[in-house]
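Continuing the batch. This is chain 6 of the set; chains 1 through 5 are on the previous pages. Same settings as before, nothing changed between runs. Recording input and output for traceability.
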Amino acid sequence: MKANPYSLDAVLGQRQQWVVPVYQRHYEWETTEDKQLPKLWDDLREEALERLEKKLQLPHYFGAIIYSESQNQTFGAVPQRFLVDGQQRITTFQLVLAALKDVARDNEINRLVAAIDAYLFNEKTASMLDPSREWFKLWPSAYDRQLFQHIVRSTRSELQELQSRFFYKNGNLIKNQAPNLRRAYWFLIEAVEEFVSERTAENEETAEGVLDALLAGFLSGFQIVVIQLDQGDDAQEIFASLNGLGKPLSPFDLIRNDVFHRARKHGENEEQLFDDRWKLFESPFWAEQVRQGRAKRARADHLVAHSVVAESAREVNVGKIAVEYQHYSQHRAFASVAEELDVLLKHADTYRTMESSNDEGALGRISRVFEIWDLSTFHPLVLRINAETFEHRKKASLFELLESYIVRRELCGLTTKNYNKVVLGMIRQFLEEEDPVAAFLKHLLELSGEASKIPTDVEVAEAIARNDAYGKIPSPRLKFILQNLEYGLRTKFDEVTVTSSNLTIEHVIPQKWSSNWPLPNGVMAPTESAFSAVIAGHQISDETKALMEARQRSIGTLGNLTLLTEALNPSIGNGAWKAKRNKLGKSLLALNRSIAEVNEWDEAAIESRAASLAAVANRVWLRGFNQSVP
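Output for chain 6:
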C-alpha cells in the first residue's frame, strides 16, 4: 500500500479514468447547512480569498482516496483506477469544475472553459479502445452515470431541458425532488455566481480574476492523500472496514498528535504534560459542535483559531486550523511545549467563561453582546485583553469601549464585514502604549471609512432620528439597545430589573395607524401607504400624501419604539393615543413614562424623543470616559 499527498491538479490532471465499483454507494453528499457541500464551499471560498487578498497560502488537506489498478490494462487505452474509497470526493471535485466551467461560459471566458475541460475529459486519441467511455475522467456508478455526463458536457439551459421535471417554470431547481447529484451541482453553481457577483461589486475585481482565484485555490490549494493498493490487498474488505469502522481524525486530533510528537522530541514528560495540562481539553465541552458565523465546528477548533489570532494578530482559516496552529507554534518558538500549552490554557479559561451564562462582570457582559450580535470575530481580542496582567478596571474599560464601537455602528447601519481586519489592528494597537485604554480609544478614533470608523455623536443622533431601526436592526439587538437606553434614562428611584426575556418591542404610533391616528393636518388617511391610496383611487392632496410618507418613514425609527413587559392587546396596540398613553403612563419603565408625558404623539414628538434618546445613547456607549468622539 503506497500513500502520498498530492494537489488536485496532479490528481485530476492526468490522463486516466476514475471508476466507481459496483459495491460503492450512489452519490450522497448533501447541500443543507452543516453538510458536506457547504463546508467544501467554505473551504474553497477561503482558498480563493487567500489569493485575491494576497494572504499566506496554506494547503487544505481534504481527506484521502484509495484506489487499485488492474495489471491487465491495454497499452494506449486510458488507464483505469478503481476507487475503493473516495468516490464522493472525486465526484464532488468534478462537480466543482463543472460549476466553475458553467459560470466561466456564462461570462464568455473561453480560456477558462478550455482549461477546465482538460480536468473533466481525456483527449480523444486513436489509441483509445472505447472513446465514448474513455473520454470521461470519471466513470460513476450506473445510477449516477447518465446525469453526471449531462452535467459535465451540457450547458445549464440544456440541462434544464433534459430533465425539466426537476425545475420550476422560472428555472429554479425543485430541490426536494432532484437527485443529490443535481442538487450538489446547482448548489455549487449558485455559490460560485454569488461569490463572483460579491467580489466584482465590492472590490473592483473582474469575473475572470475571481474565477481564476477559485480555480487556482481548488487545484493548487486543495490536497488529498492518494493511497494505491497493492495487488495482494482485498479492496472490498478494505472498503467495508473504512466505511464501517473508520472515524476520520478531527483537527484537534491532529493538533494533539503534533503537540505530543514535539514534546517527545524535546524530551518532555508526556504523561505529566497530559495530566497537568492537556487533560482539560479532553472533556465533552471542547468536543461539542457549536456555530460561530457560518462555521459549525468543535468548540476546541474555535478556541485554537481565536487563540492563534490573539497571539499572532494575523488572520487564520479555521478550516485549516491544524496547519495554522503548527505554523503559529513554529513561529513563536516556545521554550517548551508546556509553556506553549500554558498560553492555550489561559485563553481556554477565558473562553469557557465567555461561553457560560452566569458571569455578571464585564467579561460576561461583552460576551452577551457578542452572542446577541453573532460576532465571534471579536473573541480573539477579548482573549488577548483578558490574558494581560493589567488591573481588572482597565480590562472592563476596554470591553466597554468595544461594546460602544459595536452598538454605535449598529445604530448607524454600518457593515460588520470588515471586523476581522479591525480586530487585528485593535490587538496590535492596545498593547503598544503604556496606557492600554488610552491607546485603544485613540485607535478607535483614528479608524476611518464606512467599513471601520466609529460614528460621531452627530452621526448617531442623525441615525436615531432617520433610520428604520425596526426594519433594519434584528430584534435581539434592538431589545438590547432599548434595554440599555432604559437604564440610561433612570434615576436613583428606579429599581425594577429589565430582562430581555420578558420584553416586547412596541410601536407608539402603530404600524396600522390609519384608522385611529390622524395626520398632523387633521386628515384621517385612507390607508397607511400613500402609493396604495393613489392606486386604489383615493383622492388625497399633495400635502396629505407628503404627511403620509413622512409618517411611514418615522414609524420604525427609534424615537417611535419602546419596550413593554407584556404585549399590548390589539385593541390598545392599534388603538388611539388616549388609550395607549394611559397604558404607558402606568409602566414601571422610564422609557414609557417619558412618552406618556406628551399630550399629542405625532411626528414632532417622535423627533423630539429621538433627540433625547440620542443624547442618552451617546452617553451610554462611551460611558466612563471624559473623551468623546469628535
